[in-house]
Design goal:
- Helix 2 links the parallel strand 4 and strand 5.
- The protein contains twelve helices and eleven strands.
- The strands form three sheets. The protein has a seven-stranded parallel β-sheet with strand order 3-4-5-8-9-10-11, covered by helices on one side.
- The chain is globular.
């Protein structure tokens, strides 16, 4: 397994991580616990070390699942989880954001219990709380490090100035945000430049565009009735049709290279810098192996230019979240 370092002086992890969210939340067909655990075990056998979860996935059930999967294998895992988005288990559509210091402590202790571990390797603030100074939240996170409950700190979907303020309180090891061929905002909003200046690792989530870049979906009807993507602007109406045309061109380049569209999309993300550690998610061993094989794909300057010509920044039609969720992003 190829490895990469999270940040200038951070930990070494597998060059590709595994996002576990879809095993328990938001996408269809998420009730196969045994199958999901098998995927996690196969990932560990292939040398994947970075596993990514969050307390709000389920809510809570994904951490329990990951905890079961890594029982007896803790030394093989660099475990990342998140706090900050509060869901009502009785109605997951009801959500809030909290970065209050007392909540940080309580959330961490609850995650440790669900995961069945003594420490979390990388603890992210999932969304920035606009009502709480980032210094207060990161100060509480730093105390978790002092207590031995957390090793490294991270932020998710944070703006450049927030990242700087947080990093001044305690070193931030990783910044997680959406980044892929169809979500290239970090290139233009200062986030990628800021983390590189500060020596912070960059962890792209949804590097396959929530599965869309795989070319597997040809119609909104391909999604289960309760699949989150049915409510996402990029997967609706004319936006879907326009985005599908872009993916078909990606598929054409992939065929020319003898790889799958997913592999080409992942290889593109990996080619953006050695400081990037993408975390594609999957619930199938077949697709896990396909994703990992993307680590062996090299894209030359001509191929990268061809991809950029087809899929320049802002090419995707529609916002990446519904408007209510876009307002929770720290921009």
């Amino acid at each position: 397994m190829k490895t990469r370092t999270l940040g200038r002086n951070g930990p070494t992890v597998s060059a590709l991580g595994l996002g576990c969210m879809g095993m328990s939340a938001f996408y269809g067909d998420r009730n196969d616990e045994a199958g999901s655990i098998a995927v996690i075990h196969h990932a560990l056998e292939r040398g994947v070390t970075l596993l990514d979860t969050a307390d709000m996935y389920g809510p809570h059930t994904n951490e329990v699942l990951v905890g079961k999967a890594i029982a007896g294998r803790r030394d093989q895992v660099f475990l990342a989880t998140k706090f900050g988005i509060r869901l009502d288990p009785a109605d997951p559509s009801v959500r809030g954001i909290s970065g209050r210091p007392e909540y940080v402590q309580a959330a961490c202790e609850a995650s440790l219990k669900r995961l069945g571990v003594e420490h979390i390797d990388l603890y992210y603030q999932h969304r920035v709380d606009p009502q709480v100074p980032i210094e207060d939240t990161v100060g509480a996170m730093a105390r978790l490090v002092e207590q031995g409950k957390v090793r490294f700190l991270g932020l998710s979907e944070a703006a450049p100035e927030t990242i700087r303020r947080a990093h001044a309180v305690h070193p931030i090891t990783a910044l997680q945000t959406e980044y892929s061929l169809w979500t290239r905002d970090p290139e233009n909003n200062g986030v990628l430049a800021t983390v590189r200046e500060l020596g912070i690792g960059f962890v792209p989530y949804s590097p396959l565009g929530r599965g869309f870049l795989s070319g597997a979906f040809k119609s909104p009807d391909d999604f289960d009735a309760d699949d989150y993507r049915r409510s996402s602007p990029r997967f609706q109406g004319e936006n879907f049709a326009r985005n599908l045309q872009l993916v078909e061109q990606v598929e054409s380049i992939a065929r020319d290279k003898g790889v799958t569209a997913s592999q080409l999309a992942l290889a593109w993300v990996l080619a953006q810098g050695e400081d990037l550690v993408p975390i594609p998610g999957t619930k199938r061993v077949k697709y896990l192996d396909e994703n990992l094989d993307a680590l062996e794909i090299a894209l030359d300057a001509q191929e990268l230019a061809r991809i950029d010509a087809i899929f320049p920044p802002d090419a995707a039609a529609g916002t990446r979240y519904p408007e209510a969720m876009m307002t929770t992003l720290n921009r």
